[in-house]
């Protein structure tokens, strides 16, 4: 599956490294992942979410608040790939691997997760190693420069992550599926009401996917009771609001001991043209 991020030749596993015919070599980390992020476009040491943000997201997701979403995504992906005996799935912008691990429950599926954050990918490996999951591989890489061969995947999953029209089209097989998950209009509205004087609904996303045909869309919503200040703030750190909330708003948030929030998601399924 992997191609060299420098010359785009096929990578082969040789000992404890991935190597291409042109001599480019990428060492496999102790946990089992590989860093394929090119320094020409990114600084592999600082790209993506930092260690504190990844830790907060991991601890929040492991509480199970988004477990219904993970199961719903697996259900939809399984239905879309029904009849494919050995589907290859790329989780693009996989974060710390929560949704990737759920996808691994699909029988005979081969799952590849990539994220631009080395801290996130390290958490992915910890997650699958502790769970004994054998059908997932992870690499540090960008969604806009995927380290995978042309027409090598049956599906690409993007959950709250950047979407790349051309790269997803390139790596998907003919008729391959792209599943994009984004917030519904009132996702976490109660959290915004706690920190903003004038909370607003989320606007629909337009991904300009002109190389894909939209086949269907599912709105999936439920409520969740966050029962501790830590859980509330961990969730807050996962959102874009974390970067644009005033100190006054953060103080109001830190005063909350519990809150019931609407968890709302739009799950769109596209087919490669």
What does this structure look like?
With 273 residues, this protein is of the alpha/beta class. It has a domain at 33-181 and 203-220 and 266-272: Vaccinia Virus protein VP39 (Rossmann fold, 3-Layer(aba) Sandwich). Helices cover 28% and strands 27% of the residues. The chain has eight helices and eleven strands. An eight-stranded mixed β-sheet has the order 4-7-6-5-8-9-11-10, with helices on both faces. The chain has a three-stranded antiparallel β-sheet with strand order 1-2-3, with no helix packed on it. Helix 1 (51-61) packs across helix 7. The longest helix has 14 residues, at 67-80. It is globular, with a radius of gyration of 19 Å. 41% of the residues are buried.
Main β-sheet: number of strands, strand sense, barrel status?
A: 8 strands, mixed
Superfamily (CATH H level) name of the domain at 33-181 and 203-220 and 266-272: Vaccinia Virus protein VP39
For this structure, what is the CATH class of the domain at 33-181 and 203-220 and 266-272? Alpha Beta
Instruction: Name the average pLDDT.
Output: 94
Envelope shape: globular
* Total count of strands: 11
Strand content: 25-35%
Domain Methyltransferase: 88-203
Binding site for Zn(2+): 4, 7, 20, 24
Binding site for S-adenosyl-L-methionine: 66, 96-97, 187
Domain 23S rRNA (guanine(745)-N(1))-methyltransferase N-terminal: 2-38
